[in-house]
Amino acid sequence: MVKINKVYQTVLALANKEQRGYITPQEFNLFADHAQMDIFEQYFYDLNQFKRIPGNDTNYSDMVNLIEEKIERFIVRSTRGGSTPFFRRAGFTQSSHTIPQNFYRLVNVENLNGSSIEKLSWKDYEKAVLSPLTRGTKDRAISCMRDQIFFVSPPSDSIIMNYIKKPQKPNWTYIVVNEKPLYNSTAEDHRDFDLHESEQKELVIKILQLAGISIKDYEVTQVAAEEENKTIIQQKS
After folding, report:
1. Could you tell me the pLDDT band of residue 38, with boundaries at 50, 70 and 90?
2. I need a surface site. Which of 191, 223, 224, 237 has the fewest CB within 10 A?
3. Residue 111 and residue 105: Cα distance in Å, rounded?
């Protein structure tokens, strides 16, 4: 997890260095959320690209493992209760299960007994339930997702949904002293970045880009190190 105050102080230091003015906490929090989601969504694009590369090159394998490690921290296992089954056509029933608000992407779905539930597109699901030969069974249930609802046939009282959640919005919280915002890490709505700690520099760069400030990578590293030293000195004093 990346500490939000460290990123904010680095961003401010670099913005001041370029004489680009002060970035308010409100602006920073807005940029921070966009930057985090950009990096998070890039994981899946990069993972797809690296997996398409033929062969077993060690460098590519390492990149796949690294990205998967960063994604794993967002995987959630959730039991979702089902509503009362209802009929759509003669001989066909299904249950509906709400999707969590922080849902981003499905990994897989299981029954409580551990048996897998096949995930179909809405179009294929509609076709499958038309015939008794292709409808789901107790041993081979089928499902689809539409309008934030997960449908399962035959119906189930509860299912286990393994999914990737969205990162929570980061929030640099503060109190105002002498008309200046001072960092307040004890606020109830305080929130660090959800991303892997290795993403700190990338977050700084993206936030500066969103603020319209162009900075070279080595300057980010240098200023981040300076800010870290300041923090260590303050803690020891």
Report:
1. very high
2. 237
3. 19
User: Over the stretch 104-126, which tens digit does the pLDDT of each residue have?
Assistant: 999 999 998 888 999 999 999 98
User: Sign of torsion, CA 44 68 195 148?
Assistant: positive
The answer, yes or no, to whether residue 218 has pLDDT greater than 50, is yes
Rounded Cα distance between 22 and 17, Å, is 11
**Confidence at 145, pLDDT banded by 50, 70, 90:** very high
DSSP secondary-structure letter at 138? S
Distance CA 222, CA 228 (A): 10
pTM of the model: 0.81
Q: Cβ contacts of residue 75 below 8 Å, gap of 6+?
A: 107, 162, 163, 164, 165
Helices 200-210 and 217-236, axial angle in degrees (round to 10) = 110
List alpha helices for the chain, DSSP H.
4-17, 25-52, 58-72, 122-128, 200-210, 217-236
Task: Look at the alpha carbons of 99, 82, 138, 110 in this order and tell me if their dihedral is positive or negative.
Answer: positive
Under 8 Å between Cβ of 163 and 106: yes
